[in-house]
Amino acid sequence: MAPYLDTVTSFADVPITDAGVDTLAFLKASEGVVGLFDHLGSTAFGVVQSDLKGNIAKVRARYDETPTLSNTLEKLVENEKGEKKRKATEGLLWLLRGLSFTCKALQNAQANASEELAAAFAKAYDVTLKGFHNFVVKGIFSVAMKACPYRADFFNKLKADPAGGPPASDEHVAECLNKWLIGLDGIVTRLQTFYKAGGHDKGF
């Protein structure tokens, strides 16, 4: 087997055409984020994983109902627009918010090698999810971020081969993670712009 980032779909590999972001590839890459939180080793992040899973399920359910109208995320949202309950549109919006939080946290960690994950995630939370959360949820996230593992432990887990083989090099993990984050950041920015331009985020 290979290190974690070599075993999941990278956001850098999610197809993007004039019609939009490929729905199934995006969902598969998003599932990789859920697994990434296992490497943070804290049950406190269970609330984040649960939220991501729930929103992935809402988008996938819509795709399964109307695959030809939902093969890109943009088409999925546009084709749900006239319906009373836009479950997939809301689910995707919250999924993007959670992905933005994760992306910015890891970008912080990559940009500052001396910064511990707790600080990197706290900074990311302030500029992504905090404004959408009430007092109770803010408290849950505060606990989760304080429970982040040490930076070295997290990156050692990313390097490890689950099959017991030699770990990947720091350079390899950094390269994979940077490509993953650039792809993720591009997709999140694209979709958030799409939501605002079309007024798809209203009511959520």
From TrEMBL:
Alphabetized UniProt keyword annotations: Transport
Name of protein: Het-c2 protein
Any matching Pfam family: GLTP
GO CC, alphabetical: cytosol; membrane
Gene3D superfamilies listed in its UniProt record: Glycolipid transfer protein
GO molecular function: ceramide 1-phosphate binding; ceramide 1-phosphate transfer activity
InterPro entries: GLTP_sf, Glycolipid_transfer_prot_dom
Origin superkingdom: Eukaryota
Transport among keywords: yes
Positions of the Glycolipid transfer protein domain: 21-159
